[in-house]
Design goal:
By secondary structure, this protein is an all-alpha fold. The protein has helices at residues 14-28, 34-42, 48-62, 71-96, 105-116, 120-124.
Length: 125
């Protein structure tokens, strides 16, 4: 079993990092406490702005002020903090590049509506 790769905060890495870490924890570190599991996982978060995020989370954990108490909550928090933007950026880019080309009008309108449902409309305000 491969250990989790380092996570530098790049949006395209969050999904792979969380998946590998989840598998590793379930296969290798099953009998440890949640805080030990979190410490192990956080040790693989290094570099750039993600370092400040990790330091802030560690500070809250040490003071017992963190809303994250279980690994699943940490995985969810990471996906929300670092992964959600990928989907949003993809939708924004899709919206910027929609072209009708040779498609029927209803297909073009449908694609536009799907892209518009993203958070792009918030960015316009």
């Amino acid at each position: 079993m491969t250990k989790s790769p380092l996570f530098s905060g790049k949006m395209e890495e969050v999904g792979v990092f969380v998946n590998v870490a989840c598998l590793y924890l379930r296969m290798k570190i099953t009998k440890e406490s949640e805080s030990t599991k979190m410490a192990w996982m956080l040790s693989y978060i290094q570099g750039g702005m993600v370092e400040a995020w990790k330091d802030n989370l560690l500070d809250k954990l040490l003071k017992r002020e963190s809303e994250v108490e279980m690994m699943e909550e940490l995985f969810s928090k990471m996906k929300n903090e670092f992964g959600e933007i990928v989907e949003e950026e993809r939708k924004v880019e899709q919206l910027k590049t929609i072209e009708q080309r040779r498609r029927m009008c209803d297909k073009y309108v449908q694609e536009f509506k799907i892209a518009r449902e993203s958070r792009y409309k918030r960015q316009l305000s």
